[in-house]
């Protein structure tokens, strides 16, 4: 079996058991369900709330640089800290956090393969206790790396000029406009469908039943079978940008595609635009 | 210093079912004397509901009731 392009971005649950006491390792749980951490978490792990801590709480944007620095410092994360992210829904928002940490150039951040599901299924240790964390000092380096982020203009160009592969990672029902959001989540858009030219490759297709990532050969077959190849830029999108950060992680770090961006505006931006073209063709 | 209370998810089980026309995944386990159940939609892979109870059946019934409510609220648009 071929190795992932960047295996250093991924740890397994056994690695976490062996290293969770390491003072230079910080475990962070990031869940869709922001109450998840309180139901039991890995001992020593802290939690980040994606609705308040991983975004700009005024305008729609990623976490601003000053807030990011503060978040790191309050989490006891210094520039040389190894950060291990994990969460529910097969690491949706853990990947979202990783994507933002890469934008802000944190040196060593990784995902725990399989996330919370894998940890629970293996019957590993959990606690309700919240660790006391000593504040750290964190220095921001230069400008954010926006080469891994796509904006509306980029998505529009990809749609009209076909200069990048657009990967819609939502479910087929969302892609075709049958539903506007996963059941239980707010619709937050005016129209259903997808960006013209996008391929529908649901994020979940990259995962095994236990939440871990499929092999590199399986992943390569999945994306190349849909025409998403490493010789061409790729832009992933979903509804609000977290599922697509999961796919961004797969394309960039597991398959090693050189130019992959996450369009975090996603369908809640495109599906609300006046006169934006929309396709609703069946998958 | 008080020592940390350590728990483990026990007897983790996962299965797929169909609920009101939707494919769902049901995961349940015992944690600290209580049973927990999580229901997700298979297509979206998103957690739909969670329930807890003194028994697995009770936790699953609570989660499935909530899941039913969430699914009933989901608007489905006709193909056009």
From TrEMBL, chain A:
Q: Which GO terms describe its molecular function?
A: thiosulfate-cyanide sulfurtransferase activity
The record's section on PROSITE patterns has: RHODANESE_2, RHODANESE_3
Please verify whether the record's keywords include Transferase.
yes
The record's keywords, sorted A to Z, are: Repeat, Transferase
Q: Which CDD domains match?
A: TST_Repeat_1, TST_Repeat_2
Q: Where is the Rhodanese domain?
A: 21-128, 160-279
Name listed for the protein in its UniProt record:
Sulfurtransferase
Q: What is the species of this protein?
A: Mesorhizobium tamadayense
């Amino acid at each position: 079996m071929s190795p992932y392009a960047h295996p250093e971005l991924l740890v397994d649950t056994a690695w976490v058991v062996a290293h969770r006491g390491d003072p230079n390792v910080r475990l962070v749980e990031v869940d869709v369900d922001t109450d998840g951490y309180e139901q039991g978490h890995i001992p020593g792990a802290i939690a980040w709330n994606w609705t308040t801590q991983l975004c700009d709480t005024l305008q729609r944007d990623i976490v601003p640089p000053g807030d990011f620095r503060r978040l790191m410092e309050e989490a006891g994360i210094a520039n040389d800290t190894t950060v291990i992210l994990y969460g529910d829904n097969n690491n949706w928002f853990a990947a979202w956090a990783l994507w933002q940490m890469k934008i802000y150039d944190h040196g060593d951040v990784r995902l725990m393969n399989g996330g919370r599901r894998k940890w629970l299924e293996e019957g590993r240790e959990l606690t309700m206790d919240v660790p006391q964390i000593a504040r750290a000092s964190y220095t921001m380096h230069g400008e954010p790396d926006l080469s891994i982020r796509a904006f509306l203009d980029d998505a529009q160009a990809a749609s009209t000029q076909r200069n990048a592969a657009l990967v819609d990672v939502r479910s087929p029902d969302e892609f075709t406009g049958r539903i506007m959001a996963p059941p239980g989540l707010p619709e937050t858009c005016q129209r259903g469908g997808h960006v013209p030219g996008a391929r529908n490759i649901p994020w979940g297709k990259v995962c095994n039943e236990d939440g871990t990532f499929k092999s590199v050969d399986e992943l390569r077959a999945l994306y190349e079978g849909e025409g998403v190849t490493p010789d061409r830029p790729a832009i992933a999108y979903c509804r609000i940008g977290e599922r697509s950060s999961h796919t961004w992680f797969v394309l960039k770090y597991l398959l090693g595609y050189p130019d992959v961006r996450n369009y975090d505006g996603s369908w809640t931006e495109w599906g609300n635009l006046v006169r934006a073209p929309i396709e609703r063709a069946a998958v | 210093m008080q020592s940390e209370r350590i728990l483990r998810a026990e007897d983790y089980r996962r299965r797929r079912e169909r609920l009101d026309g939707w494919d769902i995944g049901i995961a349940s386990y015992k944690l600290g004397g209580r049973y927990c159940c999580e229901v997700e939609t298979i297509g979206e892979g998103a957690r739909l509901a969670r329930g807890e109870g003194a028994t697995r059946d009770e936790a699953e019934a609570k989660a499935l009731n909530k899941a039913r409510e969430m699914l009933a609220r989901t608007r489905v648009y006709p193909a056009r």
